[in-house]
Amino acid sequence: MINDFIFHLFSYLCSTIKKHPIIMKNFIKGFRFTPSNYPAEVEAKIQKYRKQGYKLPPRKVLRTPEQLEGIRESAKINTALLDYISENIREGMSTEEIDVMVYDFTTKHGAIPAPLNYEGFPKSVCTSINDVVCHGIPSKTEILQSGDIINVDVSTIYKGYFSDASRMFMIGDVSPEMRKLVQVTKECMEIGIAAAQPWKQLGDVGAAIQEHAEKNGFNVVRDLCGHGVGMQFHEAPDVEHFGRRGTGMMIVPGMTFTIEPMINMGTYEVFVDEADGWTVCTDDGLPSAQWENMILITETGNEILTY
To answer: Metal-binding: present as a keyword of the record (predicted)?
Structure first.
């Protein structure tokens, strides 16, 4: 009796499945790439490039208006935090003091420092001095001295939305060579942002940055890159700061990502300090600099969200 019941149930399900594809064809008019509130012109362009075989970003990284509202609020706190650090960073302070400043400011604004405990990172901010490329860990024994250059990289979570940016600071009497490195690195970031236009490709961004760095006698770090950010700390796409024009993922309105070139005075080769598993240093011990902004790709260009 049970076998008869299973047989009849199976027969019914099979007959139902056979009917439904005909009904579904009347429902589904085609594959839509963008969220429903995106302009028809953007959807049409994406469909055109999809048919031509271009690499497109995942649909989930195209931000909705509601998401952008949250991301912008997070970005305001992140930028205000960097302004606060700019006003207070000084010769003779420890990088641990910077970490305390970041934690206190962020939490007082109802937010969370994104680096804290991220994959085991022990602090609220990355402080990278001289030959440290990135991911430097604040310490009570690391004291800022005249002649140092330091990157302070802050990332904020506010009500579940993420933002990210970093700035360079020159402490006391910095050599002309290091001042040039800091300035050219900032120019590389700005040139990369200018190249990040809708319907271009990420290779265009990397090529523009690489050309400017190498024209000035510096080298672009290859092993680290910018990234999507907004709903998570690190999302698609990877944004490399070197490359060839006309290659890579297409840049589409609605994407939010960082441009954060790391430029070395010497070789582009780097290594991770075995002592902590985080600190990335230049292979030859020469200085490195980094600037980072987070941008939103719009229909007509881009909007800087954090700086």
So the answer is: yes
